[in-house]
């Protein structure tokens, strides 16, 4: 069973493609997390978790949610993280989280995917992003061979920089940067209500039909990128920037 979470489509694409290669089922964790639906995940095959990298580690809300659940059937789990620049030293923290679940950690494999963190970075053009997405298929074929052969993923050597990113910068980044105070809606808002629906942490409510952010944000970029009117902004960082959704790269 392939479990995944995706804010703007990167992890969803990887899960769907890997599911085809392995002929395995895929399960979107979004509703489970949003509804705090605690469950017992069962799989005859090894579990595979596919998720984005948030500040060089697995997103906290995913590890927190999975920590409440049970896993039965297979005792093995592989983890695939997609990243914009690197996944740092995420492996050491993942291993600890997985061991708490009572599962056998078979390793972490990182795949570069298009950058979507427009609240901080400039994004690549569509042509470059399509190239990155297509290259990810080669990585998935390699990944599938390890899983089919019941082999661990190769060990990752993060080096000093990776350890610094995941160990020191990550907690500081979430403490000081990952806030929702800079989010706001513009006059383009059409009061459609979609931003509340796509917020996995239920952080968006409404006042007079307009969105309001309530202080529990993880910067997944779903609200700002999925707004059909491009009406959500983040301070001055996102003004004039094109939003990113993977599906839009190939719907032309």
Automatic annotation (TrEMBL):
Residues 1-133 form the Flavodoxin-like domain. GO terms for molecular function: FMN binding; oxidoreductase activity, acting on NAD(P)H. Residues 180-208, 209-237 form the 4Fe-4S ferredoxin-type domain. InterPro entries: 4Fe4S_Fe-S-bd (IPR017896), EFR1-like (IPR047964), Flavodoxin/NO_synth (IPR008254), Flavoprotein-like_sf (IPR029039). Signal peptide: none annotated. This is EFR1 family ferrodoxin.
